[in-house]
Amino acid sequence: MKGLSTGKRDRRVLVDHTTLDDAGVFLHGKGEALVQTVDFFTPVVDDPFDYGQIAAANALSDVYAMGATPLTALAVLCYPDAELPPEVLREILRGGEAKMREAGVSVLGGHSVRDPELKFGYAVTGVAKRRQLLSNAEARPGDRVFLTKPLGTGILSTALKHGKLDRGLERRLTRQMATLNRRAAETAVEFGARAATDVTGFGLLGHGSQVADASGVTFRITPTPRLFLPRVLELATAGEIAGGLQKNRAFYADKVDEGDVSEDVKLALYDPQTSGGLLVFVPRRRATAMKAALVRRRVWVIEVGEILPRGKKAVELR
Q1: Are residues 214 and 151 part of one domain?
Q2: Which of 131, 157, 189 is the last residue of a domain?
């Protein structure tokens, strides 16, 4: 975005690209705001219906990460028509629509183009009360930080492509990526979370760095084995890593004090996620109650660290 002239910003724009947040926010009506995002990607699983569901859940996640309720969606489809039969494309769309129905979202239409590589996703519009917005620029020292899905989907998806996942772990991976972040977002808003982001393509360390920079704080992470899906650390050591992981590390390493954390854990923390969980920043006095509510609502959750006054680095591993 460097070098682009954006001109004078409309004062109704509450959030744009400048803080690298999950979605744009535009004030509309009294005390309410529109939240808008778009996301699409190439297949991460073999089953077309599952791929459609995961793409929908992933696109919706950016709206949930802002503390908003998604309302409508437009599909985005790029497809190699000479290679894929119509039945496959229909299953992708059917999977996406099924997930959108689960979220209570109306799919109004979309756009498709012929392309050598299959890609699918959605542009999503939601609404939020202005006072309940969760941006990535409001974390404060003392906040406790929680994650609502385990990490490692990029590493496991790479292993899946290489035929190195058993069926049970493949099903768990698919189920997690297709799970909506709706209950996590509703709980975060209810318990007065200060900030949030979803952990997707830049990995935990990339998205954590973005929050720390936007908020002017340092994010201290204390990783434990429970933070990761099964076999993630083993497969990372074996080299089952996506190209995006190394790009994340090259781009964000200068912002991270990696401490003496083992190499397999560091790799997994840079791993790009598909439809990852929410990273929620909540004042200490509300943290225990929020975590208990997430558990009651059957949301996987783990405390991953805390927010400190700004130090030398955006993120510290300890």
Answers
A1: yes
A2: 131
The percent of residues in the chain predicted with pLDDT above 90, rounded, is 93
- Is 6 within the bounds of a domain? no
Give the span between the Cα atoms of 202 and 199, in whole angstroms: 7
Q: How far apart are CA 150 and CA 160, in angstroms?
A: 17
Q: Are the C-beta atoms of residues 265 and 221 closer than 8 Å to each other? A: no
Q: What is the pLDDT of residues 133-163, one digit of tens each?
A: 999 999 999 999 999 999 999 999 999 999 9
Helices 182-190/284-296 angle, 10° precision: 140
> What pLDDT sits at residue 15?
95
pLDDT digits (tens, 9 = 90+) for 258-306: 999 999 999 999 999 999 999 999 999 999 999 999 999 999 999 999 9
